[in-house]
Amino acid sequence: MTRWIGQNRGFAAALALFLALYLSYHLMHPRGFSTAVLVQNSNELVAIGFVAMAQTVPVLLGGLDLSVGAIMTLAACVASWLLDGTPLQIAFGMIATLAVGTAFGLLNGLIVVYGRLQPIIATLATGAIAIGLALLIRPNPGGNVDGDLNWALTNSVFDFAETYGIGQDGEATWLAPFVNIPLPLILLFGMACLVWLPFKRTVTGRTIYAIGSAEGAAFASGLPINRARIAAFTLAGFFAACGGLYLAIQTSTGNADVVQAGAYTLNSIAAVVLGGTALLGGTGGVIASILGAMILRAVSFYFRILDIDPLLQPLIEGIVLLAAVSAVAFRTFRVKNQLELFR
Amino acid sequence: MTALTRIRPADRPILIAFGFTILILLIGTAYTLSTTGTVPLLQPSYLMQQLQIGSFLGLCAAGMMLVILTGHIDLSVPWTLTSAAMVATAIGGPWAIPAGLSVGLCVGLVNGFGVSVLRVPAMIFTLGLDTVLRGLMVARTGGFAPQDQATPAMLYLAKAKLLGVPVALFVWIAVSVLVTFLLARTTFGRSLYAIGTKERAAWLSGIRTRAVVTGAFVGSGLCAALAGVLLAGYSAKAYQGMGNSFLLPAIAAVVLGGTHILGGRGRYIGTFMGVVLIVLLNSVLSIMQMPEALRQIIYGTVIIGMLLIYGRGTRISE
What we know:
The complex is a heterodimer.
Chain A: H1 2-7, H2 9-28, H3 35-60, H4 68-82, H5 87-114, H6 119-137, H7 147-153, H8 157-164, H9 167-170, H10 183-200, H11 203-213, H12 215-220, H13 225-251, H14 258-274, H15 286-305, H16 313-327, H17 330-334
Helix pairs in contact in A: 2-15, 3-10, 3-11, 3-13, 3-14, 3-15, 4-5, 4-6, 4-13, 4-14, 5-6, 5-13, 7-8, 11-13, 14-15, 15-16
Chain B: H1 2-6, H2 12-35, H3 44-69, H4 77-91, H5 96-117, H6 122-141, H7 152-159, E1 161-162, E2 165-166, H8 167-185, H9 187-197, H10 199-204, H11 209-234, H12 247-256, H13 268-287, H14 292-309
Antiparallel strand pairs in B: 1-2
Helix pairs in contact in B: 2-13, 3-8, 3-9, 3-11, 3-12, 3-13, 4-5, 4-6, 4-11, 5-6, 5-11, 7-11, 8-9, 9-11, 12-13
């Protein structure tokens, strides 16, 4: 246990911070802990959680993807046209949405690898293109999303089972231990476990970490650098599209909002840092970034139960973010040889 | 192509940006000739007006370039600009402009402290400070545009004309000359390049890297604040989110001008050309009444396309 903490200090600190924030939130909550509150909280988490996951992969190899918010918006706009009709049509719509995001991520990867541009500036430009496409698809906010789908995916497992008649409408005994788990949480962590954890163990996945630690060494060891880079940006596009898909289902609308897209991108960077992933690359992971997103959200939950002037909310959010990232700086004052601070 | 290869690599982006600016002007003129039969784009008065609007972006880009040269980035420009404008209009009187600029100075000092002493990545620290500034301004104004009016001095700087040339353009040129001098002729300027190339080596050779990086952020804060004061003068008042549309174009202008996003390389004249290019691109697109969606797509494509023409980064194996 102590060894694990030593190896994952950033993750452990983030976990402790989140638990402290979230448990005291429930202790202070006037109605106490309930499934309804949990469902509501997790609903607010999903979109930023997915975008934070998306941001993590390029950050691990030492780049940044400034287009994740835009890809999410593009995916949400595509989804707002396609998620209605027969179950088959809806399933096709979901796959098409994810495909659009993944393809855009692939385009990012190709530009970064074969165009040999800096990721931060290449994705800044492709982000503008993604927003432009989203505006073409949805000039005005709106959309048509299947009501059952919206209800089933934004509530607890019980409601999901009831809506689609699984396990005797959710009354089956084998389903009993799970009925109160919010479905959004299952989607978020399920996607992380099913996609990220297996991917991390492949050669391509390990190469992403290797590039972030020492690119020259990774190249000299004959690791597939180009493939890993393209895969990283493609995966970022995929996760961002997951976020967009969920956002469209949750709100039943697509909205090509430039400001919102930018806010999601910037918050995703904040979530990645809070989760303990180094912006220089090489250490960290996708699960940690979900934790970072949870911390960001947990802070905003407090505004509802504490009687804080709404006008002070942005200020408090900013101060918490600034304090959290500055806390990492304690390391700076313990360094014996100052040369270690510089690269 | 042989002529292109003979030019120094550092000058190539500047020449390409210049050529592209001419190309945009020609396309715009061809469009106006074919639709209305006039050539507004080639009239000096129109160009002056566009450059007057562009001077706000130009000031932001000048400050941004100082920071990017050190290998950092300043994401706090939007609300530094807005806060400076709001503080300047709120104070009013003869102290309006110094008050606005002092906001930029404070923001720069805090950014510099966070990035160079605490060593928090600039990307996240400046972003956090941007959020804090937004919070302060929302708490102060209640989320509405403040009622305060810009002072006559601010109106003069932003709107008046001297010898037929907008005063704002003179301000931009003055700042440009100052930055060019700083970068080319002073120890501070050379230290910026040194830190951007290899901070470790710069520190070992006796450059006070903390002070220099803080200086770069102070420069960026002051430039953004000056842009805010001028913009408040131009629109006669400060309003919420007035700086939001300046951050990404400023970064784009710096990079299109040939400055390396990871620091260490770039010339100020390139940033100047980058700003002119973006301003003219915007103005041609609005003459063509391009919808916002296509505008964003063209904008993104132009940046990617130009960077691909500039010559791509070096391979890891080289």
